[in-house]
Design the sequence.
């Protein structure tokens, strides 16, 4: 099949020890992942500091995404998205403890930085 | 705000003469768009033939996406996605006439081709 098809609703586990990450596509500097969280959060004091751009949305469930320098996490529900520039430090403060939170994350390699 | 936030559920029109396209992010060879269709389809005989990769999913509504060489369109409903390689000729045979179909499309620039 030239164009692989799938469903983001397939095989969503109800309860997980760790987050589940499924890579949906990876090509030409792009990576698309489905992430399923069931109450997980970033460890205390941990911040993501990525040298790539990320575009992430919540498909179902909910989560609190906090950016360094912001007092409160932003609440994300179904349909909500955030564009995260490289090196924008952020962490997941919480995900819905009662039901799976399904994320769609798109990562794109940054251009080489000028030396 | 360092990381722009929005909702894919915002401002979904019920009826449109043409499809509505909202660019959500564009950077580093990546483009993410929300597309809202209300019954539109590709014109008869028209095929998309893109020199970039596309990853597209249906968030709500439904659509028939046909690839050249396949007898029938593939039916896409909420959560269904397709990875469309460069130059995989395809067309939208139909979108739900009764309610808006909301697509999320991710386009990524191809690597320069060897000469």
Sequence:
């Amino acid at each position: 099949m030239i164009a692989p098809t799938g469903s983001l609703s397939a095989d969503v586990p109800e309860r997980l020890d760790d987050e589940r990450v499924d890579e949906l596509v990876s090509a030409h500097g792009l990576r698309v992942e489905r992430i399923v969280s069931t109450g997980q959060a970033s460890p205390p004091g941990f911040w993501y500091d990525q040298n790539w751009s990320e575009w992430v949305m919540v498909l179902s469930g909910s989560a609190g995404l906090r950016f360094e320098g912001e007092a409160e996490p932003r609440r994300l529900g179904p349909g909500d998205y955030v564009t995260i520039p490289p090196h924008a430090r952020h962490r997941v403060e919480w995900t819905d403890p009662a039901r799976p939170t399904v994320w769609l994350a798109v990562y794109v390699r940054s251009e080489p930085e000028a030396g």
Notes: Chain A touches chain B through 40 residues (CB under 8 Å). Chain A has a mean pLDDT of 89. The first strand of chain A starts at residue 5 and ends at 7. Strands of chain A lie at 5-7, 20-27, 30-37, 52-60, 63-67, 74-76, 80-84, 90-95, 101-109.
